[in-house]
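> @MW can you paste both from yesterday?
MW: sure, first one:
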Amino acid sequence: MKQSTDIRVKTDQRYEQLYKDLRPFCGEAHAVFFLCFCTGLRAQRKANSTSSRSDRFFSGTIEPDEWACYYAVAVKEHEMDLNVLDDDKRVLQIAESYADGGMELLIEGLLSNYMASDDELRLDTRACSELSWELLKFIPDQLV
């Protein structure tokens, strides 16, 4: 449980633009990641790990309460083996799989209504005037 600051947190490469587009609505990349992680965890949805990965942010931006959640899930995933707490990279890999699963759910349940019409996964920012309100309604529905 070192809360390492130099690990590059990775997500599915397809979501790179969505992470940027969601910043005005959710905050920095670590906050978007945490929202996706919580959504994926609640639904027990992990993403397929065979997709291409890209660096999203440094672990040094992760808040202590976010780390606590990642550690708790890692311990549960490892059947209460506390040794996993010594490997922050492994802890973050588990969080990454849930975050990608959560992004899939966000796209399916909400963001698809705000997506640009091209093949890239990105928001049509001209159509996002209600997205903040929709996120506020979507999150409690997913986490309750």
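MW: second:
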Amino acid sequence: MINQLIQSLKSSKNFGNKFKSNDTHYVFLTSGGYRKYDKGRIVVIVFDGSEPRLVVKFYKNSDSISNEYETQTQIYKIYENLITKPLGIERINDYDILVEEPALGKNLTRYVYENLNKYALLDVFKLVFAFNKNLNSKLEVSNIQNLTKEVDQLFQTFYSNIKISNSHEDMIKNLRLIFLKNFENKKIFQRFSNNDFILNNFIINKNKITLTDFEFSTKTHLYFLEWFKFFRYQWVVSNDYIHDLTVSEIADPFYNLGLREFSNYKINEKFELACRLIFEIFDFINRFSISSSSTHKTLIVDMNKFLSELNSRFDKPNVVQKESNLDSSEKEFFNDEYQKLIKYKKSIDELLDLRKSNDEYNLRLKNTFEYLDKSERGFKDQKFLTENLRKRNDGLHDEVVKLREHNDELRNEIKRLELDHENFKKSMQASHENFKKSIQASHENYKRSVESSLPWKFARILDKLLGKNS
């Protein structure tokens, strides 16, 4: 399917001129398994030779991606080179395909991993802060009514997806009021946000960063909560260390508020708790909208756990923030990283031992297969001999069968001859008896004929006269 998609793009009048050769290939990315199928998202980076030419995005079930394209286009018109440039929408095989210009460079998460030193880290976070400041340079004036409307819409959606206990509901109502009260009699602004302001969605190239991924982008009054998102999903560097490293360099209140909430520097000031609540609800709704039913259960469990923790903080008096100690947090962070490296090295050593063991096993396996191969050849030779013997035996068996059949024919012939002989014998005996009876009858007839003849009678009379007995 992807190859067909690329061929369609190459033949497209809008994007065909992006390709300079026939050496096209791609990198295929897809969203995590936590998503429900109709929100499964596929991203394809298309290369022409070694150069990335296009980034293609679409949903697995052919859902329209046009809304994202329209919003990203509006954002690009305002901020231009701060974000990836959307190039257009293509309809290919019943799919709406969002095509954008690739941002050249390195993923910012990877860059941080590769530059874990104090000065590089400070430069990165100052760079991100400057980027956010550029976003805030194009704010639109709004009012408290619109802010309240957006917040209330969040709560309405939130309550439709989760059942809240009475104690939690009371806390939520109080924090809502505290949040909105903080903005009374203040200038209210709004701007576009991608609502996914995290390290992993930045590309860095020559000290310039570009923001990507606008799936959740909207115009919002809550843009300042982007820092909560940033530090909530920042796992590369300890937030305690980031706090101590940047606290004297970056004075933005919402930057520091978001950073405190996800470090050991959090306090129980009510407005900060209110901001944390609004952010968590906002994040919950976005994640809930794309997640599978099984992930929904996890999100609800996690949210109830968070509300319990927040309720506990809400009931406690404000705590004194601990003092910043860069040397201590830096030492702790790099010691943790060192321990991770030790574990990693141990894992590598275990992997090497396993590979060595596996090589030895493979050698034994190879020898076994060679033995089996040799045995198989001997078996095949034996099989050939056995097959020939079987064929010969089958031939002999056929001859024996024929001999048996011939023997049966001879036996049947002998039986037939014996039967014929017996019948002949009986016939001869019957003929002999008949002949004997015929001779006897002829003799009797002859005797009677003689005795009734005149000479015989005369002789008998003569014998009587002479006194002779017959």
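> thanks! The chain is about 60% helix and 15% strand.
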